[in-house]
Design brief:
Radius of gyration: 18 Å
Order of helices and strands: EEHHHHHHHHH
Number of helices: 9
Helix content: 55-70%
Structural class: mainly alpha
Low-confidence stretches: 1-6
Strand order of the largest sheet: 1-2
Number of strands: 2
Mean pLDDT: 89
Shape: globular
Length: about 250
């Protein structure tokens, strides 16, 4: 289990909070912001094309075993999905399902490569929990529309292993956020506090009548290394690319 309270950031690591719950590296924030900026002028198919391009870049990083760069792209894509969450509603269900499978297979491939190298932890990736938590949530939402891939279970399993938090861990996280917020302009602080109030209200609505559980609740150690054809990136990528090639003009 990683200790958040005593964790030191890698040399040169800088971070940001793009939303109250989204603690990320500045590099991830920049990549995500660039994607989101481009999405503002595009329709739903245009947004999916942005994801296609990002997945292609991600795939090239994976083939070269450039795991740090791959993790950055994955984290940015995960945040992009959280904000631009309408693309799964396209009328092309197969394309949506295949896109989700490539995302999931890429995610699992990178996580397992980092684990094999002994680097799947917050000492190497301080914002690891943000990516795991949001990817797990996204995977669950995709299952609700029959886009099935168990990468959410892998994320929960890793989360359950790494993020059993103590009171000191929680205090450390709050201090980190407070320090970052104090460095922002008054306008940014006011906007951040507004978002915090909104998130708190949303959480109250979701948790009403239920005991609050950590995001990785239900994560099993047996899921972290489970085998699945959906995690075979070579197979999934080939199927995904073959389908895209059939789309006239690639909207």
């Amino acid at each position: 289990m990683s200790s958040l309270a005593n964790a030191n950031f890698p040399a040169g690591y800088t971070y940001a909070f793009c939303r109250p719950r989204f603690f990320v590296s500045v590099k991830v924030h920049e990549v995500a912001r660039n994607l989101l900026g481009k999405a503002q002028t595009r329709g739903t198919y245009g947004k999916l094309s942005l994801i296609d391009s990002s997945l292609a870049t991600l795939h090239s990083k994976i083939l070269k075993k450039e795991w740090n760069e791959a993790f950055t792209i994955l984290s940015a894509l995960t945040l992009f999905n959280e904000v631009e969450d309408d693309w799964p509603m396209l009328d092309d269900g197969k394309r949506v399902a295949l896109t989700n499978k490539v995302y999931g297979a890429s995610l699992v491939t990178v996580l397992r490569a980092l684990k094999k190298e002994g680097r799947l932890d917050i000492l190497n990736f301080p914002a690891l929990e943000t990516t795991l938590r949001e990817a797990a949530g996204w995977g669950g939402l995709m299952k609700d529309i029959s886009c099935n891939s168990d990468y959410d279970l892998v994320c929960k399993a890793v989360g359950a292993r790494l993020f059993q938090k103590s009171e000191a861990d929680i205090a450390s996280e709050k201090a980190r956020q407070d320090a970052w917020l104090a460095s922002r302009s008054q306008e940014d602080q006011d906007e951040f506090h507004r978002m915090m109030r909104e998130e708190a209200e949303d959480e109250e609505d979701e948790d009403e009548g239920d005991e609050s559980e950590p995001w990785h609740s239900g994560g099993s150690e047996f899921d972290e290394d489970v085998k699945s054809k959906d995690f075979d990136l070579s197979r999934v990528w080939k199927e995904y690319k073959a389908y895209l090639d059939l789309i006239p003009g690639r909207r």
